[in-house]
Amino acid sequence: MKSLIHIVSCMTLSLLCCNCSSEPDFTLKEGDLLFQDVDCGPFCNAIEAVTQGFDDYNFSHVGLVMKDAQGHLKVMEAVSAGVVLTPIDTFLSRSSDVHNAPKVLVGRVKPDFKDLIPGAIDFIQSKMTAAYDPYFDINNDQYYCSELIHLAFKHANGDMPIFKEYPMTFIAPDTQQTFAIWETYFNDLNYSIPEGQPGLNPGGMSRSPFIDMVYKYGEPTRSTP
User: What Pfam families does the database record attribute to this sequence (predicted)?
Assistant: First the structure.
């Protein structure tokens, strides 16, 4: 069961002209969002199948760039170990395209909303000991990747969200049947599949009108019709 939770540690289920650059002198900033196409097999495939990402890219994980206690930039992510800070190189090396470049795009909060970043980071700092949310319940005090980022910016914006929640779905679009991997996952948790409950995933978050895509490390996979 622990291995299942580890693989799906970023789960969020249920939207922008691309100014993406791939110039080598790009510098990350605190508050940047790293949208990642993780190759974790059936779990990631199920996540990506139900939500369209920015420019039709597949994203199954998202982290937020912030400073650690020594002032070094790292990536905050909610994974099976809970809410953690991960070295940027470690995060970027998790999955690569055919050219061995990280399958990661960088989203940046638009200038009119950049003042929300300190408040969002303060919120995240208060959750650094929180556990991962294997149930994808947006109302408990556990967190999956996009849920924590969503709630952090919502808190910073006076309880007004900048990322939209959608009804989660665990049903394959082509068969209209629940993905077998989710049947197994929730059966092992002894928990009902939260079909239709509010939530978010990295793909939906990547399409938010409140962020710009500013950099592309590599080429994530794209959805096919």
Answer: Peptidase_C92
